[in-house]
Amino acid sequence: MRRLAVREMFSCIAMGVLLAACAKDPAPAAVPKTVLVVQPGAGLGVAGEAFAGDVRAREESPLAFRVGGNLQKRLVDAGQMVQKGQLLAALDPGDAQLQRAAAKADVDRLNGDLQRYRKLLAQQLISQSAFDAQQAGYLAARAKYDLMRNQDDYTQLRAPADGVIASRQAEAGQVVAAGQPIYVLAAQRGREVAISLPEARIRDFQTGQKAKIELWNAPGQLLSGHLREIAAVADPQTRTYAARVAVETEDAGKVELGQSARVWIGAAPSGGALRLPLSAVQRARDGASSVWVVDASGQVQPRAVKLAGYGADSVPVLDGVSAHDWVVAAGGHLLRAGETVRPVDRKNRPVTPQGH
Predict the structure, then answer these.
(1) Which of 1, 162, 206, 212 is the most buried (most CB within 10 A)?
(2) CA 75, CA 87: separation in Å to the nearest integer?
(3) Is residue 74 domain-resident?
(4) How many whole angstroms separate alpha carbon 262 and alpha carbon 237?
């Protein structure tokens, strides 16, 4: 019994020592949340709704053979510059050449007969009507020969003007019909951005409205344009109206066919407007808008903002933040005021906000 009591006493002492040691260990520090931040200073300084589109030529012409046949060779490809009169493709000329040769033989034969008839008429050995019939036969054969010669020429497809091959729609060895498009030629002059306008707001747009254009590969660089054309009927599937925004002449040389672009239709407010991604905006029940801003101490604070019309993926901010603020781009609903965070940019690089 005495041994058992001693053993229990030592166990209690050991447990007490362990508890005392644990009590002395400091509690682990909370790890700050990593948040993605952006600066509204990277905005475009334009208001209005943004529409995605792609650059097209103002004049696009489908090119086709005037006769059908087997596509023997294709000499250019999409994206190539071509000049007026340049050979683009050719059909197998075999049949056309045979028909042309047969028509030429008929012309030569009838021409020889006509010359003999002319001499006989001069000698009054045949009547005028017989000569006229022979001459009519010759003229008909000559017309047929001219037609066959044209048919032979039609087996070659040449560029009607200088431009760029926008697309290729047939392959060598394929049998094509007369009028079937082989290429689409984009004329050199004039560049436009093809966009779609929502049916619900179509009355807000009209031709001639000023627009700003941003190319996806040149963010922040705005080109001037205007709304040139709006389709009269909405697309039955998407319920949108096809529209064309013309790039002003002085900026037309800065865009290439097929480039992706965004278009803002509407005037910029005085002083310009900064932009933020839609995911950065927090909406309260009363309709007020705010964002989370990381201060110089690394803590997030709510900031009330005044917004303009919402775009497809961003919104103009008219008041509440400056171009130098670091704003939380997403996940704001998980933050609380005064919380310390670890801000990083879109390339996952740490950001150190500065006081200003």
Answers:
(1) 212
(2) 7
(3) yes
(4) 22
